């Protein structure tokens, strides 16, 4: 496969490196769904500890932001496969 302009400038392709290390798109998709579930669980646990509402919401949102990243990595790995 021909190197892209970015790959030439940076010196390596991180997605290709992940693929070579054995990571697959299915694993990234599973991590995305797991982060959604973990986000809800973190929010519920934080609410159960009587934390103030803003803190519970921040925990859920913080973990929830991981999902799009994992899904994007999954798509990139799918193209690599």
Provide a concise account of the structure shown.
With 81 residues, the protein is mainly alpha-helical.
Low-confidence stretches: none
**What form results from the Cα inertia axes?**
elongated
How confident is the prediction overall: mean pLDDT?
A: 80
Strand content: under 5%
Order of helices and strands: HHHHH
Indicate the multimeric state. single chain
Number of helices: 5
Count the E strands.
Answer: 0
Ordered list of secondary-structure elements with their pairings:
Elements: H1 5-10, H2 14-20, H3 25-48, H4 53-64, H5 66-80
Helix pairs in contact: 2-5, 3-4, 3-5
Describe the 3D structure:
This protein is mainly α. Helix content is 79%, strand content 0%. It has helices spanning 5-10, 14-20, 25-48, 53-64, 66-80.
Structure keywords:
81 residues; mainly alpha; 79% helix
């Amino acid at each position: 496969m021909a190197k892209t302009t970015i790959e030439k400038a940076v010196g390596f392709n991180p997605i290709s490196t992940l693929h070579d290390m054995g990571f697959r798109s299915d694993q990234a998709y599973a991590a995305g769904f797991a982060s959604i579930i973990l986000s809800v669980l973190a929010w519920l646990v934080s609410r159960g500890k009587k934390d103030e509402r803003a803190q519970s919401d921040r925990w859920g949102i913080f973990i929830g932001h991981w999902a799009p990243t994992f899904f994007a990595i999954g798509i990139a790995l799918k193209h690599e496969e």
